[in-house]
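Tokens for LCP family protein. Go.
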Amino acid sequence: MEKDTQEIESDELQKTGRKKRRKKKILIIVIVIAAVLLALLGIAYAVIHHYYAKSNYVQDGDVAVVTESELPQDVQEENSVDSMSEEARREAEEKALAAQKDVEFPNGDYVYNLLLIGSDRRDTSWYGNSDVMMLASINSKTKTIYLTSFMRDSYAIVGDTGAHKLNYAYALGGGPLLTETIENNYRINIDNYASADFTSTAQIVDLVGGVDIDLYQEECDYLTEQGVGDFPTAGTYHLNGEQAVAYGRIRYVGYYDYERTERQRRVMEQIFLKAKSLSLSELNTLANEILPLTTHNLSESEVISLVTQLPSIISYDLELGRVPYDGMFHSEGELLVPDWEATIAQLHATIYAEE
């Protein structure tokens, strides 16, 4: 019996030893995997940090707001409300201010709002016109990116300067003032903004390999006249960056600014579709190459967060829209005056949808 007991004890000791060795091996494997993951994360962070350092990050407080008298005279005249009657001005301002006072900001932490700005800055003495103003609302509940264009001739209360065209906010105070103006007038929280001039925008289009756009004959004629290529007949064309920017800036073909914002959304949609086909490494490379081309107020941690979410975000649906909405505004001279209550309700219902 003693021998049997000793054998049993020996077997148990051997089993215990094997278990300890297995546990040790598993622990070593876990440590190795963790070390590899940490190394990869460290490399990814180093790459993002390298490119982020090249980008033009500007704190909101460092962006000066200029006085109207500092802007070119033609810019002041172009963005004024002088084309409105005195009565129309008074009524529009009362309704806009009432909306700002009465409508609450929605509580939607599941939506990330990024304002995308395309500026025409040929003269570096001022910020330029914001010819492109698009709000990209990334909704994690509906798995949808809502891309909403704001028309440049929309009526807006701009800071302490009173009523102007929405476009004027960027001319006076760059990205921060335009962000604040859209927030206050439309009662939405905008997390960050990113702006690029048209040269940088062309480079971004080229980075994704160009875009495929359907052109009708008048658009073909216009682009050919602009000298950006030969477009003899209507059809689908593969546009490079310079051509895509020229296409997005067409204003006096078709339905004026309404159609221009639609063209801009088409270009953005094509960029998004191109990005959806890229691999994770290609997406990271694209994000890192785009950063140096933009001026923005995203902190490094916010950029890292967005980059890590790219594989998920890029699979979201894309829904395009425009403000003012059809049937929810009226024209006063050269300005588009929204029906504030209906417009704000529609905008909130769209980008803060829960299903």
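The longest helix spans residues 2-54.
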